[in-house]
Amino acid sequence: xxxxxxxxxxxxxxxxxxxxxxxxxxxxxxxxxxxxxxxxxxxxxxxxxxxxxxxxxxxxxxxxxxxxxxxxxxxxxxxxxxxxxxxxxxxxxxxxxxxxxxxxxxxxxxxxxxxxxxxxxxxxxxxxxxxxxxxxxxxxxxxxxxxxxxxxxxxxxxxxxxxxxxxxxxxxxxxxxxxxxxxxxxxxxxxxxxxxxxxxxxxxxxxxxxxxxxxxxxxxxxxxxxxxxxxxxxxxxxxxxxxxxxxxxxxxxxxxxxxxxxxxxxxxxxxxxxxxxxxxxxxxxxxxxxxxxxxxxxxxxxxxxxxxxxxxxxxxxxxxxxxxxxx
Length: 327
Description:
Blueprint: E1 2-6, H1 12-15, E2 16-20, E3 30-40, H2 42-49, E4 60-61, E5 65-73, E6 85-88, E7 101-105, E8 109-111, H3 118-121, H4 126-138, E9 146-149, H5 155-166, E10 170-175, H6 178-187, E11 191-194, H7 200-207, E12 213-218, H8 222-228, E13 232-240, H9 253-259, E14 262-265, H10 275-290, E15 298-302, H11 306-314, E16 321-325
Parallel strand pairs: 9-10, 9-12, 10-11, 12-13, 13-14, 15-16
Antiparallel strand pairs: 1-2, 1-4, 3-5, 3-7, 3-16, 5-6, 6-8
């Protein structure tokens, strides 16, 4: 088995090492998967630097999700067969998916959506489960509401754009630069704001006749969070999904009281302990895919290019979800 592991903390070029180890057979309740592709995200860059809120013991394998084919089934496993196309989901620990062969508990795999290429399936779990749970369970997004998505050309942002459109919301996408803005248009956003050229606060107010956005999806933090509070509607929900901008914002709660809006924190980790709910969400997402409403936006790289690709996550050059072609 070959796997990309963080062996020491630092920049990806220094921290990541391609490690080879003997294959192991699946034990009771486990399956072995030949990995076709695995997805990486901004947390993998933070993990390399030691800046992520989780601090796994070194060394450990990066990558929160993967897709491939079942090649061996351990004792006591029902409903899983050799040859099944599957998604290997993020577990309760960080990472672990960026390897050419994985042995995982059978409850950590989901069926890949029918007709979806495995490089896209590798990017289907984290981004779409995150955006689905955030928008609908925590944010209560409804048809006819206005959704503002920051970082809309990225992995979870592009998923949020598609899911907002899938349920009939009006979607305003924010991205940086004309190329990324064009990506958002192709994703189906109703309106696109290039934050390098326009003040998104003023544009959102203008597009909504001063009312503001009902739900704001913020994975950036910092000044983006602060400015978003100026263009949120009465009874709006500002979803705190992450801090890709590097700064954790703070604010005076009296502002939420005066404008009558909610700041809603969201993290997928608590929901991963509920496999029934995870499968319900997966089935709903597969239904969206079967109807042509969602399709993962991926930026693919080769297996030997991983350190350079992880660096590019910090340079904001990746469009969609970064996917590593493994085999």
